C-alpha cells in the first residue's frame, strides 16, 4: 500500500523574512524529499500550501488509507532531514497498521512528531 508524504510548501522558519531566500523553506524541503523518495518503494509525495503548523515549520504528514497517520514538524530543509522522512515513510508503508516501533525510527525523525491521527472508520 502506498504511503504519502505530504509536504507544506509554504512553511517559513523563523527569520526567513530577513534572509535573501527566493523560495520558502517548505519549497526547499519539498524538493529534497521528492528527490529522496524518487526511488523509494510504496512512497509517494505531494505538496500542499499550508498545513497550519506554522509555529513548527517545516511540516509534513505521513499518511496511508486505513493506517494511523502522523504529523511531524520542525525540520530543516536539508538532505539529512529529507532522507529521514523518506526512510520513516518507507517503514510506515511496510507496516500493516502504520505503526513503526520506536527502535526502528530513523534518528532524524525522533523529536519531530506532533500528532497521530487514527484511520477513518470504514
What does this structure look like?
It comes from Thalassorhabdomicrobium marinisediminis. InterPro entries: DUF1636. Pfam families: DUF1636. This is Metal-binding protein. With about 120 residues, the chain is α+β, with helices and mostly antiparallel strands. The chain has a single domain (about 5-115), classed as Glutaredoxin. The chain has 2 helices and 5 strands. It has helices at about 25-35, 80-95, and strands at about 5-10, 45-50, 60-65, 70, 115. A 5-stranded mixed sheet has the order 2-1-3-4-5. Strand 1 (about 5-10), helix 1 and strand 2 form a beta-alpha-beta unit. Helix 1 crosses helix 2 (about 80-95). The protein is globular. The mean pLDDT is about 95.
Chain-wise SSE layout:
Blueprint lengths: L2 E6 L16 H13 L5 E6 L11 E4 L5 E4 L6 H16 L18 E5 L5
Parallel strand pairs: 1-2
Antiparallel strand pairs: 1-3, 3-4, 4-5
Key structural traits:
five-stranded mixed beta sheet, alpha+beta, 122 residues, 2 helices
The strand order across the widest sheet is 2-1-3-4-5
Can you give the mean pLDDT?
93
Shape: globular
Runs in which pLDDT lies below 50 for 5 or more consecutive residues are none
Radius of gyration: 14 Å
Strand % is 15-25%
InterPro entries: DUF1636
Pfam families: DUF1636 (PF07845)
Protein name: Metal-binding protein
Amino acid at each position: 500500500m502506498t504511503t504519502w508524504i505530504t509536504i507544506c510548501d509554504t512553511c517559513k522558519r523563523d527569520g526567513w523574512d530577513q534572509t535573501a531566500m527566493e523560495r520558502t523553506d517548505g519549497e526547499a524541503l519539498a524538493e529534497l524529499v521528492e528527490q529522496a523518495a524518487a526511488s523509494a518503494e510504496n512512497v509517494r509525495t505531494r505538496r500542499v500550501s499550508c498545513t497550519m503548523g506554522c509555529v513548527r515549520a517545516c511540516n509534513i504528514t505521513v499518511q496511508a488509507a486505513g493506517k494511523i497517520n502522523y504529523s511531524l514538524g520542525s525540520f530543516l530543509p536539508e538532505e539529512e532531514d529529507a532522507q529521514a522522512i523518506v526512510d520513516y515513510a518507507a517503514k510506515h508503508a511496510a507496516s500493516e497498521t502504520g505503526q513503526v516501533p520506536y527502535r526502528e525510527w530513523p534518528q532524524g525523525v525522533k523529536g519531530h512528531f506532533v500528532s497521530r491521527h487514527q484511520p477513518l472508520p470504514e
